[in-house]
Design a protein that fits this description.
The complex is a heterodimer of chains A (about 180) and B (about 170).
Chain A: H1 4-12, H2 17-40, H3 43-60, H4 70-93, H5 97-108, H6 118-128, H7 132-143, H8 148-155, H9 159-179
Helix pairs in contact in A: 1-2, 2-3, 2-4, 3-4, 4-8, 5-6, 6-9, 7-9
Chain B: H1 20-30, H2 47-63, H3 73-92, H4 107-116, H5 123-129, H6 137-140, H7 147-157
Chain lengths: ~180, ~170
């Protein structure tokens, strides 16, 4: 696999840009997709946000200073894109964020790209009750299996705070799942 | 941690308390959980194989209408200032212009415009560029209130109206 710094250099060089961008997309498309999908839930929306994320990365790579890792930077863009996508969607429909969340969860049952069983559906409903930060941390740690250090880099939060958020989230989810 | 040790003869291994949190967290994470390990989401067949092509298409299509992003705060201030100037100008000419202009816009259209367009400005930032201190209450209100209407309102809604000590002027 190509070193991240070399990839960034190639992305900034017009001569090598398009080839490097292809490598970038192929390297990160799945990881970013599943991260976005865990936020927007629906495949079409995830596809839309994922494409916008890569386009934003492509257009702004010249401004990437390398203070953080490339993938943390992309994850951050993906997170912001997904969250603002949901905000715009609820605004467009004239409903609150939680009403939109309920609508998205309701749609999951009929979604052909959701093959979860009853427990998995309950889990999604339970995750929706968590505060935004806990929701992100839980998905990133539990399903995407990112390390605390990586999540800390992406969300710009201390590792200690993330550990606390994650364990709180897990406890809440277990209680909800056991209740039902 | 020694200050809590009242049971003098007992000791703990070196660094026992320092590493306690990590060991506890590790054990918690190993405990069997009722949370399923799969989330149930799937993607359409060949989705990832065709993604590159879709992005390239979208990128090429957007290439013609690229507007360089300038993340300068000054730019937002300038945009908001221009918007504020327009609002004031239209506001002043509100009743004197015959041409169908600002007046024809329904308030809901204006509200929707501000609602749906992300200016990236907080209420405080907007407050900084709009000369609020130069505005009169009647510039903001849709209908002008006559003095006697205000007095009637106060009379009906304020319990101790006389105590307000309003004179006739």
């Amino acid at each position: 696999m190509i070193a991240e710094a070399d990839l960034v250099d190639q992305l900034k060089n017009q001569r090598t840009q398009s080839q490097a961008f292809e490598v970038l997309v192929n390297t990160y498309k799945q990881r970013l997709y599943w991260h976005i999908r865990s936020i927007v839930l629906n495949h079409d929306d995830a596809d839309d946000v994922l494409q916008n994320t890569f386009i934003k990365v492509y257009r702004n790579i010249a401004g990437f200073k390398g203070d953080s890792k490339l993938y943390s930077w992309m994850y951050r863009i993906a997170t912001n894109e997904a969250l603002s996508f949901l905000k715009k969607k609820s605004k467009k429909q004239g409903i609150s964020d939680s009403e939109l969340q309920n609508q998205l969860l309701g749609n999951l049952e009929a979604d052909v790209y959701f093959e979860g069983d009853e427990i998995q559906l309950k889990l999604q409903k339970a995750i929706a009750t968590l505060p935004e930060k806990q929701k992100l941390v839980f998905n990133m740690k539990y399903f995407q299996e990112l390390k605390y250090e990586e999540i800390s880099d992406i969300l710009e939060t201390s590792v200690g705070g993330l550990k606390a958020s994650y364990h709180l989230a897990v406890k809440k989810l277990e209680v909800i799942l056991k209740e039902n | 941690m020694k200050e809590f040790n009242k049971n003098k003869p007992f000791k703990t291994p070196e660094d026992y308390f320092e590493g306690f949190n990590d060991r506890l967290m590790e054990r918690i994470s190993k405990e069997p959980s009722s949370i399923p390990k799969e989330d149930g989401f799937v993607v359409p067949e060949n989705y990832f194989e065709t993604l590159q092509e879709s992005i390239t298409k979208k990128l090429t299509a957007e290439e013609t209408k690229v507007v360089t992003l300038k993340p300068y705060r000054k730019f937002y201030y300038a945009a908001a200032s221009i918007a504020a100037v327009f609002l004031v100008i239209f506001g002043l000419q509100w009743n004197s212009v015959d041409e169908p202009t600002f007046e024809d816009l329904a308030n809901s259209d204006i509200d929707a415009y501000f609602e749906n367009n992300e200016f990236g400005l907080s209420m405080y930032e907007i407050g900084e560029v709009i000369p609020v201190h130069e505005l009169e209450i009647n510039d903001i209100l849709e209908n002008r209130f006559e003095e006697n209407q205000v007095l009637d309102y106060l009379n009906e809604n304020i319990e101790d109206y006389e105590a307000l000590n309003l004179d006739d002027e």
